[in-house]
Every structure is written in C-alpha cells, then in structure tokens.
C-alpha cells in the first residue's frame, strides 16, 4: 500500500504492532515484475473510491442529543417540549377543576399535578432505544436531564448526510411523502436517497431531501413522523448538542 498504509494506521493504530513476518520475497517479486505503485491503482483504477470512502473522513455536520430542544452528533432534542409544557398542561385540562393539569395522581395537590405534568412534557429527546432495522422510535425524557433514564440518544448527522445512532450502522429512513409518514431505522447504505437529511441551522428544521418534508413529533404520544415543513410549528424545531456551522454552510 506504500504511503497509503498511513491512512489505514490512522483508523487502526494497533495494526502497526502486528507481526507480519519477513516480506523480502514479496518485495523482490514486486520489483522483478515492475509492479506499479499503489498510488497508481488508486488514481487510475479506483479513482472514484475516495468519493465514498475518503482516506480521511470529512467532519460530521452535527452530533449529540437530539431534542424538541435539538442539533447534530450528540443529543437531538425537540424545541417545543422545552418552551410549551406549562401552557399545554393547563390548556389540556380534563380535571373537574379548571386549574388542574391533564395528568394527575389520585390525592395529589394541584401544585404536585402541575409539576408532574410539566416534567412529563418537557425536555424530550429522540431515543432509538437500541432498536433494530424497520423499527420505529420516538421521544423520551432526555438522559442528560434525568440521571435514572436509560436509552440511546446520541446521534450523528454524518458527512454521508444521514442521521444515525452513535457507533451503530442504522440510519433514519423515510420511504413515503404523505403526512405523518413514519421514520424507521434502516441499515445505512451511504447512498443518500431515503436517508438523505439536511439540518437548517436558521430554522432548526431537519429536512428529508427526497420527500421535502420535515421531521415532526407529537410530544403527548411521543411519536415521530414526517410532515410538510412549517416554520410556525415548534414541534418541527430540533437542536443538536454540537453543530459544525462551517460544514453546514458548505453543505
């Protein structure tokens, strides 16, 4: 591999310490046959390889937790569940007392009910819960806000322009364009299509480029789905923990 072996060592550092034995015979054969260098193979035969498998991977667009707070390799939160819970708890009241929140334990005070309701609505994050291919997923309380909460809430909007749970090869996949279209996990194929996403930093929208829809949710049922993009809908605004603004500007 000549100088290209350094790219391999960058991803697999322990390979440097592998015992490969005496390669004198192989090297002599290469010289005797006047074999071309590995660089020639990469530039003439496998010239399109770096487009899909670059020697040095480009930076990701975003990562972290994704919430209906929201943003890129880590947590992905939904903004609506940060700013709307108090109004939602009071407005959706079905209790005989007009000031009582919708969710209430038997014997709880109005104040206790309101606190429990707000906590149930606020700070929700996308959680794939280590689910498998073809499975849907939804919203759960953000692990970083609740020490006892468990799940899978770290995501990457990768340089492939797909969204995947950190350290897993399953991607957010959308195959239809109707309202409330489901979002499922599917094996990442790095060919965009059903798995092509763009994060709009200014609007906090996660746009599915093939269908033109935006990632949306219902914080009451905690479901995730697709809908036509609407800048007035807080349920379509997402935040990542970290966003690479430079890479996003050059999307």
From TrEMBL:
It catalyses: L-threonyl-[protein] + UDP-N-acetyl-alpha-D-galactosamine = a 3-O-[N-acetyl-alpha-D-galactosaminyl]-L-threonyl-[protein] + UDP + H(+); L-seryl-[protein] + UDP-N-acetyl-alpha-D-galactosamine = a 3-O-[N-acetyl-alpha-D-galactosaminyl]-L-seryl-[protein] + UDP + H(+). SUPFAM superfamilies: Ricin B-like lectins. One of its GO terms (molecular function) is metal ion binding. It comes from the Eukaryota. InterPro entries: Nucleotide-diphossugar_trans, Ricin_B-like_lectins, Ricin_B_lectin. One of its GO terms (biological process) is protein O-linked glycosylation. Gene3D superfamilies: 2.80.10.50, Spore Coat Polysaccharide Biosynthesis Protein SpsA, Chain A. It is found in: Golgi apparatus membrane. Residues 112-241 form the Ricin B lectin domain. Keywords: Disulfide bond, Glycoprotein, Glycosyltransferase, Golgi apparatus, Lectin, Manganese, Membrane, Metal-binding, Signal-anchor, Transferase, Transmembrane, Transmembrane helix. It is a single-pass type II membrane protein. Pathway: Protein modification; protein glycosylation. Belongs to the glycosyltransferase 2 family. GalNAc-T subfamily. This is polypeptide N-acetylgalactosaminyltransferase. It comes from Caerostris extrusa (Bark spider). The gene is gly-10.
């Amino acid at each position: 591999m000549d100088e290209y072996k350094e790219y391999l060592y960058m991803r697999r550092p322990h390979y440097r310490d592998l015992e490969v034995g005496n390669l004198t015979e192989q090297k002599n054969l290469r010289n005797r046959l006047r074999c071309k260098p590995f660089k020639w193979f990469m530039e003439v035969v496998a010239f399109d390889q770096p487009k899909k498998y670059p020697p040095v991977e480009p930076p990701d667009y975003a990562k972290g937790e994704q919430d209906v707070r929201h943003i890129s390799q880590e947590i992905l939160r939904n903004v609506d569940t940060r700013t709307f819970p108090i109004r939602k708890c009071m407005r959706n009241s079905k209790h005989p007392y007009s000031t009582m929140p919708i969710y209430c334990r038997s014997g709880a005070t109005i104040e206790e009910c309101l606190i429990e309701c707000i906590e149930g609505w606020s700070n929700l994050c996308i959680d794939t819960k280590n689910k498998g291919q073809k499975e849907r997923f939804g919203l759960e309380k953000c692990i970083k806000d609740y020490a006892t909460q468990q799940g899978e809430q770290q995501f990457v909007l990768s340089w492939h322009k797909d969204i995947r749970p950190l350290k897993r090869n399953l991607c957010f996949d959308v195959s239809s364009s109707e309202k409330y279209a489901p979002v499922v996990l599917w094996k990442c194929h790095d060919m965009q299509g059903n798995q092509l996403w763009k994060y709009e930093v200014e609007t906090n929208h996660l746009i599915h480029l093939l269908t033109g829809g935006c990632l949306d949710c219902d914080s009451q049922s905690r479901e995730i789905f697709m809908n036509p993009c609407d800048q007035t809908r807080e349920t379509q605004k997402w935040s990542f923990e970290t966003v690479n603004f430079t890479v996003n500007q050059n999307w």
